[in-house]
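Quick one: structure tokens for this chain, please?
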Amino acid sequence: MRSYHKFVQEGRLSGDSKLEPNSLGIWTLGGDLGIGFVALIETRAKEILLIRKANKHNYEYSGRLALPGGMIRSKEVHSPEFLRDFEYSIQARLEEESGLSPSLFNGLEPLSTITPVTSYTAKGARRHTLVLPLSGKISGQVPLLATSSSVQEPQWVHWAEVVSLIREVAPANCLVLASYLQDRLTPNQRDFIAPAVEKALHDCTGWAEEVGWPSPSFPGLSADSV
């Protein structure tokens, strides 16, 4: 799998922090900043795979829309290997959250976009995650089925409808989607998504600053806009 190497070459996993799994088996930079991914899968008809998060008490993103994804976890505690664990985590999360198998498309490649930091609360503790965005193409719709309790529903959504739903999308996912779609947008669509993107950029910038990670940037927008 080439994705990890590209992220390193592009500097998205560079810096002084050591790449290592923490006590929970989650890969991190320096033990504090978790590493996760989202997968942007699009059909030839320009339908994008979205998931709706399950409704959970005291979960910030309960019921929100997102791209399938998750944390990169160590498969074998006593012999962690990031490249293998990255590939395994992608396969496992895609199948759990949507029923899709990576064999249905020709691999996933890093998106040449932003790499945002997200944050959430788990077991009373505030966590931060660096989100690595990946993309892949699939010939057409295939039936979707989520087996993960964290997902309410996976669905294929035409990109133009994704634009209309952008305010329901979790912050880091919002930035990834807006960056991916920006060249297709009409002036009216750009104006429509601007408030949601500005808010997402503001949130992700704050979370990045909390862990000393470079702030994300988005063409034409500033985190100070909101």
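The chain has a mean pLDDT of 87.
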